[in-house]
Amino acid sequence: MKKTLTFNLAPISVEIDAPEGMSEKELRELGEKEMIKQFAKKYKINSWSLSEGSILASEDIHIGRPVKLKSNGKLGIIYDLKPTTKFPIRVLTEGNIDMQCTQAGVEKVSKRTNIDKLITGRQEFEKNLGWLSPRSGYFVNGKEIIPVIIVPKGKSAKAYIVGHEANGGHYTLSSMQLNRVFDTKTEAEEYVAKLK
Questions:
Q1: C-alpha angle 120/124/126, rounded to 5°?
Q2: What global pTM score does this model have?
Q3: CA 158: distance to chain centroid?
């Protein structure tokens, strides 16, 4: 059975003797060597935790990333990150249920997971109200259909691109541009077909 240990370390600052004219890459390499020496001197671990299975690495946690919740096995999409809170990762799961969890509570989904199965749009009663809360859909940009998760921000909204390699890329959409966000891929395809 796989287990993941997470060690939280304090920042390490090191001094190096650097000749004039060194590139940033060369400076970094010198610094990394010195940091390893410092670490070898029993650097203090601030805290640690143990989790079942593997967890999503910090560098892989981005808005728009599909994830699987360890607590119930549901698939979802990260729609917000609040690093200073107890449960910093906000995930919209199947049935448009908003879940909050820690990094240890989510894991990567297989790249074979079809993104279209994660895009659920709004419920019927929500469609007349607009995009008032985080929901997934399809944004038509020109003739391109892009799976997104909509996060309302006042009179506009951010449409984060959903994908296995999502890196937080998004479009800022006005209320008029939100008319080009559709609940289903079929609706988006019909809209694009009318543009031809």
A1: 90
A2: 0.72
A3: 14
